[in-house]
Prior knowledge:
By secondary structure, the chain is of the alpha+beta class. It has one domain (2-100): Beta-grasp domain (Ubiquitin-like (UB roll), Roll). The chain is built from three helices and five strands, in the order ββαβααββ. The protein starts with a strand and ends in a 6-residue tail after the last strand. The model has no long low-confidence stretch (mean pLDDT 96). Keywords: 2Fe-2S, Iron, Iron-sulfur, Metal-binding.
Amino acid sequence: MTKITFVTTNGERIETEAENGATVMETAIINAVPGIVAECGGACTCATCHVYVGDDWREAVGGPSMMEEDMLDFAFDVKDSSRLSCQIKVRDELDGLVLHVPSRQG
């Protein structure tokens, strides 16, 4: 299992174990991470699973696709480190990943 930590806006750290092949959003929903809404269920059509990827993880996670970039236009407080968690597939290389949840979703 791959360990992923979500940091909420109040600084709470929620440590999870994710199955490879699942998405980070699915992991957040299963673990009831506050602030991850995921209204579209992972179809990349709502931008309510927005997260920030730490600088030391950005290369491993990779950048957004064109479709994801378009959806990020609807997210709140987008930064260079912004990703939609529904578009990040869990894999061994992401073991230890730390993601920050924005103060609100788009």
